[in-house]
Every structure is written in C-alpha cells, then in structure tokens.
Input
Amino acid sequence: MVENSQVQLVQKSATALNRFVSPLDISKLVAQHGTPLYLVDEDTLHAKAKELHKAYSKFKGPVKVAYSIKANFTPAVIKSFMKDGVTFDLTSLGELHFIKQCKADPENIIYTSVTEEPEEYLEVLQSGVRRIVVSSFNGMMNLAKAAGRTGSKPLTMIRVNPEVGVKAEVRASYRNGKFGVPFNGGTIDSAAKMVKHLMGNELLKFEGFHFHLGSQITDFSCYTHALDKMDAFMTKMKKDHPSFHVNTFDIGGGTPVFYNDPVPTPAQMAENHVGKLNQLAETHGTFTLMIESGRFLVAESSILVSRIVNTKEYNEHKIVIVDAGYHILLDAALLKQEYPQEVVPVVDSKDNTTAIATPKNTHLAGRLCDTYDVFPLSKVSDLNGSEVGRYISFYNVGAYSVVFNMPFHCQTKPPIVMKDSDGKFRLVRKGTTYEKLFVEEGGNIA
Output
C-alpha cells in the first residue's frame, strides 16, 4: 500500500475537460433543441466503467462494478451500462421500475433499501432480484417474511457502518450514523447479532458485507482503517460460526471526480487498499469484490449548455446571467459544487474562433429569483467572451444534476441529447412543456 501523502495526483486543467462536442455541434444542437440542454457522451460512460474495473485488476479474485443509478437514472444511460455488463445498485422501487423497463437482468441487480419495508421487499423478490443488502435487524426480518411469501432464498448482505473517520465532501460513515449497523452494540442492530441470526435462518442465505464511506474521497486512510476493522470482525465471526464465509464484499464508492482541485485516479485509489483486500481473501477465503460508483461513472460524460441572456457591470464587477439555474444544477447551491465552465467559441464560416476579454471579477448567475442561484467557479473556468447570446458549457454535470431537476419558478426539465458511440446525436429525453407541468401540478383537476 502507499500512503496518501505519497500519491501524485493527476493534474487536471481546462485541456482535460471532456469536449466531446465541437462549437459547431453545439450551435446545431441548440438551434434544434434550445437551451438549457444536457449533452451526454456514450463513449465516456463505457470508458469510465472499464477504467474503474481495470483499477482493481490486481485483486486476486472476481471484480464487479456496480452503478448506483441514483446518480443518473436516464434510461439511455442505464442501457449504455447494460452493454458493459455492470451490476446496478438500486435503493427504491422507482429505480427498480426503471431497470425492469430497460430489461436489465435481475442477476445484475443489488438492492440496498433504507426503509426496508415488507411490501417493498416482496416486490423486489417477485421481480427476480436475489442479492439484497439489509441495514437493520428489523429490515432483515421483513426480508425473511417476504422470502417466505415468495418461496425464494435471497442472498443477504449486511451493511456495516465501520465508524471510521472520513475526510470527504459527503461522509457516510460516522458514529451513530444513519446508514448500516455497527460491528457490535448493545441492541439487535449490530452486525454480530445479524450474522448470528443469518447463520441459522432457513429463509435467508448469508452472502457477505457492504459498506460505503462517502463521496469524493481523496484521503484513502479511511479505507485502510475500515478494512482493518473488517478483518478483525471477520476473524471473530469465523471463530463464533464455523460455517461463516463471505461470498461478496462490497466496499462502496467514493472514487472522486475532478471539478476544481486535482484528484487521484481510480488506479491510484485502488493501489492503496488492493493489497489489504487480497490479504482478506487469502485469510478468510475468496470472495467477489464489488466496487460501487455513481458519480465517477457518469459525471464526466455530460455537459450542460446554457445561453447568456443578460449581463451588467458596476464597481469593476460583471454579472453574467444565463438561462439555467440551480433547479437543474442543484449541487451548485447545496454543496457549492464548482463545475468547470467556459464560453463556447463563436465559429464563423472559416471555422475561426473569436473571444472577447471579460473583467477579472466576473460572476456567473442563474435565472432564478433566489440569492443562492449563483454558480461557483472552478479554477479552470474561463468566462472570457461572456456576452449576451453566447453559450456557456458546464462540464462534469452527469451526476445528480439531471435527477435533481425541480420545477422551482415553474421551470421545466431540459431535453437530453446523447452522442452515441457511432458519433451520431439523438434525443434521449424530451424537454417538458409548461402545459405538461401545469397538468402534473393538478391544473386539470376540477
């Protein structure tokens, strides 16, 4: 393993942004579909799935990549990942419906509920899903009831909260946290008591463990500590239960994406703990390693194109107002996400580009009547040439922005266009209309 301080982060700059569309492409697409407009590159989706899988090639056992579809459940994105044979990580019946409509193989689904309701599990099992992650003793009992009604015997994994310190944009593991159960404790909601129950359960089959530490992790020490604690716990479980064996071990996500500061690659991340994972497999028996990701797999695949609709200048500051807002890039307001932005070059008939100098103190604002609708700038953002009528590209918006769309100010969902692997562009989600939004909000109900 390598210490995090020794990792040489891959330096990203404006030249590393995924410009999979040319200024001429953008001009044609906005003329056809308007703005704001999401653009998705299918080749990038495939490349990210392969990159994440390859990063763990030194693991001495089977490796599976699981896509957390909460990051982006656009059907075209799901169908693209189906070509890569990835597993789909679901956490709601709505996501299950999307996966079924896309005709994904139930064998390639892992279901991790938060609510863990009996009727929820019943529908999941009736859909043919076999691998379930439980996060509470009560949830495990509800799954057993559903299994009894369906006659199936689900492969049951326990979500553990390692309770380790995590330095990340979003932490998912901490003492008394919402997700999973601690290794031990004074109640039935502990991994030790849940393993004991599963070992003798006729309706459920113990499959393994799952944990998730957080999002945008660049300090890998949390994985080292979590795996050390898992090692000690598995050793104890083997002593207490002679038939104990882990078949699947899911270490969650956390692979970071570039927005503003340099981030490690998946390979650099894996190098930190693949040795420990191999040691776990050698000590406790071979298992399938599951690597989850939502953000990393889809973020860099997508661009949001928005039109500059107004500008104003005073006190050596310039306010640039676009026709997008945080209703379609909510992380900009919630997490102050610093999406890289740049003004799309103007292309004339000779394919030459022009740029107009913009004051240093330039601020990018959205079209919403809300104080928080101001977009933070990345270190690689370039707003030179910010004039009314020009277009601005927001990069790396493929994760969460699409699914966070909301109708604040009666705003509608933008269309989504995908660039297929054959280089052709196709509309994969129509933009909604004001009339459709009116109907959805009950406008036609007497």
User: Anything to note?
Assistant: Confidence is low (pLDDT under 50) at residues 1-15. Residues 302-440 form a domain with the Lyase, Ornithine Decarboxylase; Chain A, domain 1 fold (CATH 2.40.37.10). The chain has two domains: 42-298, 302-440. The chain has twelve helices and 21 strands.
